[in-house]
Amino acid sequence: MNDYKPLADEIRPDSLDDVVGQRHILGEKGMLRRIVNSGQIPNMIFYGPSGTGKTTVARIIARKTNRTLRKLNATTAGIADIKNIIEELDTMLTPGGVLLYLDEIQYFNKKQQQSLLEFIEDGRITLIASTTENPYFCVFNAILSRSTVFEFKPISPKDAEYAVKRAVNILNSRREAPLAIEDGVTERIALSSGGDVRKCLNAVELLFSTADESNVITLADAEAISQRSSMRYDRDGDEHFDSLSALMKSLRGSDADAALHYLARLMEAGDLIGICRRLLCSASEDVGLAYPQAMPIVKACVDSAMQLGLPEGRLALAEAVILLANAPKSNSVVCAVDAAAADVRKGHVGSFPRELQNVHADGAGFEREQGYKYPHNYKNHWVKQQYLPDDLKNVRYYEYGDNKTEQAFKKYWEEIKG
After folding, report:
1. How many CB atoms within 10 Å of residue 139?
2. 3-class DSSP state of 88
Protein backbone atom coordinates (compact mmCIF):
# COMPACT_ATOMS: atom_id res chain seq x y z
CA MET A 1 0.00 0.00 0.00
CA ASN A 2 1.34 3.42 -0.93
CA ASP A 3 1.48 5.66 2.15
CA TYR A 4 2.96 8.60 0.29
CA LYS A 5 1.47 11.96 1.18
CA PRO A 6 2.48 15.16 -0.63
CA LEU A 7 4.55 17.50 1.51
CA ALA A 8 2.01 20.29 0.99
CA ASP A 9 -0.66 18.14 2.69
CA GLU A 10 1.64 16.67 5.29
CA ILE A 11 2.79 19.98 6.79
CA ARG A 12 -0.42 21.98 6.61
CA PRO A 13 -0.54 24.57 9.43
CA ASP A 14 -2.58 23.67 12.50
CA SER A 15 -3.33 27.26 13.53
CA LEU A 16 -4.21 30.50 11.81
CA ASP A 17 -0.92 32.00 13.01
CA ASP A 18 1.00 29.59 10.77
CA VAL A 19 -1.07 30.23 7.63
CA VAL A 20 1.05 32.03 5.03
CA GLY A 21 -0.32 35.35 3.79
CA GLN A 22 -3.96 36.51 3.94
CA ARG A 23 -3.22 39.07 6.67
CA HIS A 24 -6.14 41.17 5.40
CA ILE A 25 -8.59 38.56 6.75
CA LEU A 26 -6.45 36.50 9.13
CA GLY A 27 -4.41 39.24 10.80
CA GLU A 28 -4.91 40.18 14.43
CA LYS A 29 -7.97 42.27 13.59
CA GLY A 30 -8.94 40.41 10.44
CA MET A 31 -12.65 39.66 10.14
CA LEU A 32 -12.24 35.96 9.36
CA ARG A 33 -9.95 35.46 12.38
CA ARG A 34 -12.47 37.21 14.61
CA ILE A 35 -15.27 35.00 13.29
CA VAL A 36 -13.23 31.84 13.93
CA ASN A 37 -12.30 32.96 17.45
CA SER A 38 -15.95 33.69 18.23
CA GLY A 39 -16.93 30.09 17.54
CA GLN A 40 -20.04 31.26 15.66
CA ILE A 41 -19.26 30.01 12.17
CA PRO A 42 -21.55 31.28 9.39
CA ASN A 43 -21.88 29.86 5.89
CA MET A 44 -18.86 31.09 3.98
CA ILE A 45 -17.39 31.09 0.50
CA PHE A 46 -13.62 31.24 0.13
CA TYR A 47 -12.69 32.76 -3.20
CA GLY A 48 -9.18 32.89 -4.62
CA PRO A 49 -6.45 31.13 -6.60
CA SER A 50 -5.24 27.66 -5.72
CA GLY A 51 -2.49 27.28 -3.16
CA THR A 52 -3.50 30.31 -1.10
CA GLY A 53 -4.75 28.55 2.05
CA LYS A 54 -8.48 28.07 1.47
CA THR A 55 -8.52 24.36 2.34
CA THR A 56 -6.09 24.82 5.21
CA VAL A 57 -8.21 27.52 6.84
CA ALA A 58 -11.37 25.43 6.41
CA ARG A 59 -9.72 22.49 8.21
CA ILE A 60 -8.58 24.74 11.05
CA ILE A 61 -12.13 26.06 11.41
CA ALA A 62 -13.52 22.51 11.48
CA ARG A 63 -11.24 21.60 14.38
CA LYS A 64 -12.43 24.64 16.33
CA THR A 65 -16.11 23.68 16.14
CA ASN A 66 -18.11 20.85 17.65
CA ARG A 67 -19.48 19.95 14.26
CA THR A 68 -18.71 16.86 12.24
CA LEU A 69 -16.51 17.67 9.24
CA ARG A 70 -17.55 16.34 5.86
CA LYS A 71 -15.60 17.12 2.70
CA LEU A 72 -16.73 16.99 -0.90
CA ASN A 73 -14.99 17.99 -4.09
CA ALA A 74 -17.51 19.24 -6.64
CA THR A 75 -15.40 17.96 -9.53
CA THR A 76 -16.23 14.36 -8.57
CA ALA A 77 -19.17 14.55 -6.13
CA GLY A 78 -22.84 14.44 -7.07
CA ILE A 79 -26.36 14.49 -5.65
CA ALA A 80 -25.87 11.00 -4.13
CA ASP A 81 -22.97 12.27 -2.03
CA ILE A 82 -25.06 15.19 -0.78
CA LYS A 83 -27.92 12.81 0.11
CA ASN A 84 -25.52 10.64 2.12
CA ILE A 85 -24.56 13.66 4.21
CA ILE A 86 -28.18 14.72 4.63
CA GLU A 87 -29.09 11.21 5.87
CA GLU A 88 -26.54 11.59 8.67
CA LEU A 89 -28.21 14.72 10.03
CA ASP A 90 -30.00 14.39 13.39
CA THR A 91 -28.25 11.08 14.09
CA MET A 92 -25.53 10.04 16.53
CA LEU A 93 -23.02 10.46 13.72
CA THR A 94 -23.53 14.22 13.65
CA PRO A 95 -24.69 15.32 17.12
CA GLY A 96 -23.72 18.95 16.61
CA GLY A 97 -24.61 19.17 12.96
CA VAL A 98 -22.31 19.05 9.93
CA LEU A 99 -19.61 21.40 8.75
CA LEU A 100 -19.48 20.73 5.01
CA TYR A 101 -16.35 21.79 3.18
CA LEU A 102 -17.27 21.87 -0.51
CA ASP A 103 -14.21 22.40 -2.70
CA GLU A 104 -14.56 23.84 -6.22
CA ILE A 105 -18.25 24.67 -5.80
CA GLN A 106 -18.33 26.18 -9.30
CA TYR A 107 -18.55 22.64 -10.68
CA PHE A 108 -21.90 22.01 -8.97
CA ASN A 109 -24.90 22.84 -11.14
CA LYS A 110 -27.92 24.79 -9.90
CA LYS A 111 -29.84 21.69 -8.77
CA GLN A 112 -26.87 20.36 -6.82
CA GLN A 113 -26.29 23.68 -5.08
CA GLN A 114 -29.97 24.13 -4.30
CA SER A 115 -30.17 20.69 -2.66
CA LEU A 116 -28.24 22.19 0.26
CA LEU A 117 -30.48 25.21 0.76
CA GLU A 118 -32.97 23.79 3.26
CA PHE A 119 -30.22 22.48 5.52
CA ILE A 120 -27.96 25.54 5.54
CA GLU A 121 -31.08 27.64 6.13
CA ASP A 122 -32.04 25.80 9.33
CA GLY A 123 -28.43 25.52 10.49
CA ARG A 124 -28.04 21.74 10.37
CA ILE A 125 -25.33 22.18 7.74
CA THR A 126 -22.74 24.93 7.91
CA LEU A 127 -21.28 25.37 4.46
CA ILE A 128 -17.74 26.44 3.73
CA ALA A 129 -17.31 26.41 -0.03
CA SER A 130 -14.19 27.27 -1.98
CA THR A 131 -13.81 28.37 -5.57
CA THR A 132 -11.08 29.66 -7.83
CA GLU A 133 -13.66 31.54 -9.90
CA ASN A 134 -15.60 34.68 -9.11
CA PRO A 135 -18.43 33.47 -6.84
CA TYR A 136 -20.75 36.23 -8.04
CA PHE A 137 -20.67 34.53 -11.44
CA CYS A 138 -20.52 30.83 -10.55
CA VAL A 139 -22.45 30.49 -7.27
CA PHE A 140 -26.23 30.73 -7.46
CA ASN A 141 -27.86 33.67 -5.69
CA ALA A 142 -29.76 31.56 -3.19
CA ILE A 143 -26.49 30.15 -1.81
CA LEU A 144 -24.64 33.44 -2.20
CA SER A 145 -27.23 35.43 -0.26
CA ARG A 146 -26.87 33.06 2.70
CA SER A 147 -23.07 33.16 2.75
CA THR A 148 -20.23 35.53 3.59
CA VAL A 149 -17.58 35.79 0.88
CA PHE A 150 -13.89 36.04 1.79
CA GLU A 151 -11.27 36.65 -0.89
CA PHE A 152 -7.94 34.83 -0.63
CA LYS A 153 -5.20 36.68 -2.49
CA PRO A 154 -2.07 35.28 -4.20
CA ILE A 155 0.81 34.79 -1.77
CA SER A 156 3.54 37.42 -2.00
CA PRO A 157 7.10 36.21 -2.78
CA LYS A 158 8.16 37.26 0.73
CA ASP A 159 5.48 35.12 2.38
CA ALA A 160 6.13 32.27 -0.06
CA GLU A 161 9.82 32.38 0.90
CA TYR A 162 8.83 31.85 4.53
CA ALA A 163 6.91 28.72 3.53
CA VAL A 164 9.89 27.44 1.53
CA LYS A 165 12.27 27.88 4.48
CA ARG A 166 9.81 26.11 6.79
CA ALA A 167 9.58 23.17 4.38
CA VAL A 168 13.37 23.00 4.05
CA ASN A 169 13.79 22.91 7.83
CA ILE A 170 11.20 20.14 8.21
CA LEU A 171 12.74 17.95 5.51
CA ASN A 172 16.27 18.54 6.79
CA SER A 173 15.19 17.56 10.30
CA ARG A 174 14.35 14.10 8.93
CA ARG A 175 17.76 13.52 7.34
CA GLU A 176 20.94 12.25 8.92
CA ALA A 177 22.92 14.60 6.69
CA PRO A 178 20.97 17.82 6.13
CA LEU A 179 21.18 19.35 2.67
CA ALA A 180 22.94 22.67 2.19
CA ILE A 181 21.00 25.32 0.27
CA GLU A 182 22.84 27.65 -2.09
CA ASP A 183 22.18 31.36 -1.92
CA GLY A 184 19.23 32.41 -4.04
CA VAL A 185 17.46 29.04 -4.05
CA THR A 186 14.61 29.96 -1.71
CA GLU A 187 14.10 33.29 -3.48
CA ARG A 188 14.00 31.58 -6.87
CA ILE A 189 11.41 29.04 -5.76
CA ALA A 190 9.27 31.73 -4.13
CA LEU A 191 9.36 34.01 -7.16
CA SER A 192 8.52 31.25 -9.64
CA SER A 193 5.52 29.97 -7.71
CA GLY A 194 3.05 32.55 -9.01
CA GLY A 195 1.70 33.13 -5.50
CA ASP A 196 0.89 29.42 -4.99
CA VAL A 197 2.34 27.95 -1.76
CA ARG A 198 1.57 24.41 -2.92
CA LYS A 199 3.84 24.90 -5.93
CA CYS A 200 6.60 26.12 -3.60
CA LEU A 201 6.35 23.06 -1.38
CA ASN A 202 6.17 20.69 -4.34
CA ALA A 203 9.35 22.26 -5.70
CA VAL A 204 11.14 21.85 -2.37
CA GLU A 205 10.04 18.22 -2.12
CA LEU A 206 11.27 17.52 -5.64
CA LEU A 207 14.65 19.15 -5.00
CA PHE A 208 15.15 17.07 -1.84
CA SER A 209 14.15 13.81 -3.54
CA THR A 210 16.57 14.39 -6.43
CA ALA A 211 19.56 15.66 -4.44
CA ASP A 212 22.84 13.93 -5.33
CA GLU A 213 25.71 12.81 -3.15
CA SER A 214 27.01 16.37 -2.82
CA ASN A 215 24.16 17.06 -0.40
CA VAL A 216 23.70 20.51 -1.87
CA ILE A 217 20.64 22.02 -3.52
CA THR A 218 22.02 24.37 -6.12
CA LEU A 219 20.55 27.47 -7.69
CA ALA A 220 20.89 25.73 -11.05
CA ASP A 221 18.66 22.91 -9.78
CA ALA A 222 16.06 25.40 -8.59
CA GLU A 223 16.13 27.17 -11.94
CA ALA A 224 15.82 23.87 -13.78
CA ILE A 225 12.47 23.06 -12.17
CA SER A 226 11.13 26.57 -12.73
CA GLN A 227 12.40 27.41 -16.20
CA ARG A 228 9.09 28.95 -17.15
CA SER A 229 7.23 31.37 -14.92
CA SER A 230 4.38 29.83 -12.97
CA MET A 231 2.26 32.91 -13.56
CA ARG A 232 -1.44 32.29 -13.10
CA TYR A 233 -3.61 32.56 -16.18
CA ASP A 234 -6.92 31.08 -17.18
CA ARG A 235 -8.29 32.04 -20.58
CA ASP A 236 -11.86 31.65 -19.31
CA GLY A 237 -11.37 32.97 -15.80
CA ASP A 238 -10.74 36.14 -13.84
CA GLU A 239 -7.01 36.24 -14.62
CA HIS A 240 -7.81 36.57 -18.32
CA PHE A 241 -10.16 39.50 -17.91
CA ASP A 242 -8.15 41.14 -15.13
CA SER A 243 -4.97 41.09 -17.23
CA LEU A 244 -6.70 42.61 -20.24
CA SER A 245 -8.44 45.20 -18.07
CA ALA A 246 -5.17 46.14 -16.39
CA LEU A 247 -3.49 46.58 -19.78
CA MET A 248 -6.28 48.81 -21.07
CA LYS A 249 -6.40 50.95 -17.94
CA SER A 250 -2.63 51.35 -17.84
CA LEU A 251 -2.69 52.60 -21.43
CA ARG A 252 -5.51 55.00 -20.56
CA GLY A 253 -3.53 56.18 -17.55
CA SER A 254 -0.46 56.85 -19.73
CA ASP A 255 1.74 54.49 -17.68
CA ALA A 256 3.99 52.82 -20.24
CA ASP A 257 5.83 50.71 -17.65
CA ALA A 258 2.65 49.20 -16.21
CA ALA A 259 1.25 48.63 -19.70
CA LEU A 260 4.43 46.80 -20.72
CA HIS A 261 4.21 44.65 -17.60
CA TYR A 262 0.69 43.49 -18.40
CA LEU A 263 1.62 43.06 -22.04
CA ALA A 264 4.44 40.74 -20.93
CA ARG A 265 2.04 38.72 -18.77
CA LEU A 266 -0.41 38.33 -21.63
CA MET A 267 2.36 37.38 -24.06
CA GLU A 268 3.70 34.82 -21.59
CA ALA A 269 0.21 33.29 -21.61
CA GLY A 270 0.15 33.42 -25.42
CA ASP A 271 -3.00 35.56 -25.56
CA LEU A 272 -2.17 37.33 -28.82
CA ILE A 273 -5.78 37.92 -29.91
CA GLY A 274 -6.75 39.47 -26.57
CA ILE A 275 -3.80 41.86 -26.73
CA CYS A 276 -4.55 42.98 -30.27
CA ARG A 277 -8.21 43.65 -29.56
CA ARG A 278 -7.39 45.83 -26.56
CA LEU A 279 -4.73 47.81 -28.42
CA LEU A 280 -7.11 48.59 -31.26
CA CYS A 281 -9.81 49.52 -28.79
CA SER A 282 -7.50 51.86 -26.88
CA ALA A 283 -6.45 53.65 -30.06
CA SER A 284 -9.99 54.89 -30.70
CA GLU A 285 -11.46 54.91 -27.18
CA ASP A 286 -8.66 56.59 -25.24
CA VAL A 287 -6.45 58.36 -27.78
CA GLY A 288 -9.02 59.11 -30.43
CA LEU A 289 -8.81 62.47 -32.15
CA ALA A 290 -6.05 63.72 -29.86
CA TYR A 291 -3.70 61.76 -32.13
CA PRO A 292 -5.68 60.29 -35.05
CA GLN A 293 -2.54 58.69 -36.51
CA ALA A 294 -2.52 56.25 -33.58
CA MET A 295 -5.16 54.05 -35.20
CA PRO A 296 -3.33 53.28 -38.48
CA ILE A 297 -0.03 52.85 -36.63
CA VAL A 298 -1.53 50.45 -34.08
CA LYS A 299 -3.35 48.58 -36.84
CA ALA A 300 -0.04 48.12 -38.64
CA CYS A 301 1.58 46.85 -35.44
CA VAL A 302 -1.28 44.45 -34.78
CA ASP A 303 -1.23 43.11 -38.34
CA SER A 304 2.52 42.60 -38.08
CA ALA A 305 2.22 40.76 -34.77
CA MET A 306 -0.57 38.54 -36.10
CA GLN A 307 1.52 37.60 -39.12
CA LEU A 308 4.69 37.01 -37.12
CA GLY A 309 3.11 35.35 -34.09
CA LEU A 310 4.86 35.12 -30.74
CA PRO A 311 7.59 35.63 -29.70
CA GLU A 312 8.63 37.48 -32.88
CA GLY A 313 5.59 39.76 -32.78
CA ARG A 314 6.41 41.07 -29.30
CA LEU A 315 8.33 44.08 -30.63
CA ALA A 316 5.44 45.29 -32.76
CA LEU A 317 3.09 44.91 -29.79
CA ALA A 318 5.49 46.73 -27.48
CA GLU A 319 5.78 49.55 -30.02
CA ALA A 320 2.00 49.94 -30.06
CA VAL A 321 1.81 49.85 -26.27
CA ILE A 322 4.48 52.51 -25.79
CA LEU A 323 2.89 54.72 -28.47
CA LEU A 324 -0.59 54.47 -26.94
CA ALA A 325 0.67 55.08 -23.41
CA ASN A 326 2.57 58.19 -24.42
CA ALA A 327 0.05 59.61 -26.91
CA PRO A 328 -2.20 62.52 -25.84
CA LYS A 329 -5.61 61.31 -24.71
CA SER A 330 -9.16 62.21 -25.69
CA ASN A 331 -12.44 60.40 -25.11
CA SER A 332 -14.46 62.86 -27.17
CA VAL A 333 -15.22 60.18 -29.76
CA VAL A 334 -16.67 57.66 -27.31
CA CYS A 335 -18.64 60.35 -25.48
CA ALA A 336 -20.10 61.66 -28.74
CA VAL A 337 -21.15 58.32 -30.18
CA ASP A 338 -22.54 57.12 -26.82
CA ALA A 339 -24.66 60.27 -26.51
CA ALA A 340 -26.03 59.83 -30.03
CA ALA A 341 -26.75 56.14 -29.41
CA ALA A 342 -28.56 57.01 -26.16
CA ASP A 343 -30.94 59.33 -28.04
CA VAL A 344 -31.65 56.68 -30.65
CA ARG A 345 -32.42 54.05 -27.96
CA LYS A 346 -34.82 56.48 -26.29
CA GLY A 347 -36.70 56.91 -29.56
CA HIS A 348 -35.49 60.46 -30.17
CA VAL A 349 -35.15 60.11 -33.92
CA GLY A 350 -37.64 62.34 -35.73
CA SER A 351 -38.19 62.62 -39.47
CA PHE A 352 -35.41 63.17 -41.95
CA PRO A 353 -35.08 66.81 -43.00
CA ARG A 354 -36.54 67.22 -46.49
CA GLU A 355 -33.20 68.47 -47.75
CA LEU A 356 -31.47 65.21 -46.78
CA GLN A 357 -33.89 62.73 -48.27
CA ASN A 358 -32.89 60.62 -51.23
CA VAL A 359 -33.46 62.72 -54.35
CA HIS A 360 -34.34 59.63 -56.39
CA ALA A 361 -37.41 59.14 -54.21
CA ASP A 362 -38.85 62.50 -55.28
CA GLY A 363 -41.95 62.40 -57.41
CA ALA A 364 -45.24 64.10 -58.09
CA GLY A 365 -47.09 65.45 -55.10
CA PHE A 366 -44.23 67.40 -53.46
CA GLU A 367 -45.05 71.09 -53.13
CA ARG A 368 -41.43 72.24 -53.23
CA GLU A 369 -38.07 71.04 -54.46
CA GLN A 370 -35.77 69.14 -52.21
CA GLY A 371 -33.71 72.25 -51.46
CA TYR A 372 -30.42 70.49 -50.63
CA LYS A 373 -27.39 72.78 -50.78
CA TYR A 374 -24.21 71.14 -52.04
CA PRO A 375 -21.43 72.36 -49.65
CA HIS A 376 -18.67 72.12 -52.28
CA ASN A 377 -20.39 74.85 -54.28
CA TYR A 378 -19.81 77.33 -51.46
CA LYS A 379 -16.83 79.12 -49.98
CA ASN A 380 -14.68 76.91 -47.74
CA HIS A 381 -16.87 73.97 -48.80
CA TRP A 382 -19.46 74.77 -46.16
CA VAL A 383 -22.96 76.26 -46.13
CA LYS A 384 -25.39 76.58 -43.28
CA GLN A 385 -28.32 74.17 -43.43
CA GLN A 386 -30.14 71.79 -41.09
CA TYR A 387 -28.96 68.20 -40.94
CA LEU A 388 -30.56 66.85 -37.75
CA PRO A 389 -34.28 66.04 -37.57
CA ASP A 390 -36.49 68.91 -36.39
CA ASP A 391 -36.90 67.37 -32.93
CA LEU A 392 -33.13 67.30 -32.42
CA LYS A 393 -31.96 70.25 -34.48
CA ASN A 394 -30.20 71.98 -31.56
CA VAL A 395 -28.63 68.88 -30.00
CA ARG A 396 -24.85 68.64 -29.60
CA TYR A 397 -23.21 65.27 -29.16
CA TYR A 398 -19.60 66.07 -29.93
CA GLU A 399 -17.56 68.38 -27.72
CA TYR A 400 -14.04 69.28 -28.82
CA GLY A 401 -11.34 67.77 -26.63
CA ASP A 402 -8.77 69.99 -24.96
CA ASN A 403 -5.88 68.60 -27.00
CA LYS A 404 -3.92 70.32 -29.73
CA THR A 405 -5.50 68.45 -32.63
CA GLU A 406 -9.14 68.94 -31.66
CA GLN A 407 -8.59 72.54 -30.62
CA ALA A 408 -7.17 73.16 -34.10
CA PHE A 409 -10.36 71.69 -35.56
CA LYS A 410 -12.43 73.91 -33.31
CA LYS A 411 -10.57 77.08 -34.28
CA TYR A 412 -10.83 76.23 -37.98
CA TRP A 413 -14.61 75.77 -37.91
CA GLU A 414 -15.26 78.71 -35.62
CA GLU A 415 -13.57 80.97 -38.16
CA ILE A 416 -15.61 79.54 -41.03
CA LYS A 417 -19.00 79.22 -39.30
CA GLY A 418 -18.62 82.50 -37.42
Report:
1. 22
2. helix
Q: For the chain, give the number of residues.
A: 418
* Alpha helix segments (H runs only) across 210-331: 219-224, 238-252, 256-268, 272-282, 294-308, 314-326
Please say if the pLDDT value at position 28 is more than 70. Answer: yes
Average pLDDT, the chain: 86
Q: How far apart are CA 245 and CA 194, in angstroms?
A: 19
Of 205, 322, 350, residue with least CA distance to 263: 322
| Cα–Cα dist 418/404, whole Å | 21
The phi and psi torsions of 417 (rounded to 5 degrees) equal -85, -10
Q: What is the pLDDT of residues 42-76, one digit of tens each?
A: 999 999 888 888 888 988 888 777 677 888 999 89
Per-residue pLDDT, 233:
53
Phi then psi for 172, rounded to 5 degrees? -65, -30
- Burial of 14-39, coded b for 16+ CB within 10 Å and e otherwise, reads eebeebbbbeebbeeebebbebbeee
| Cis status, amide bond into 389, omega within 30 of 0 | no
Q: What is the pLDDT of residues 322-380, one digit of tens each?
A: 999 999 999 999 999 999 999 898 888 888 887 787 765 555 555 446 678 889 999 99
DSSP string, 361-403: G--TT-SS------GGGSGGG------S-GGGTT-------SS
* Count of other CB atoms within 10 angstroms of residue 185: 23
Tell whether the torsion through CA atoms of 242, 232, 11 and 161 is positive or negative: negative
Pairing of strands 68-73, 180-181: unpaired
How crowded is the C-beta side of 247, counted as CA atoms within 13 Å? 29
Residues 196, 154: Cα–Cα separation, whole Å: 7
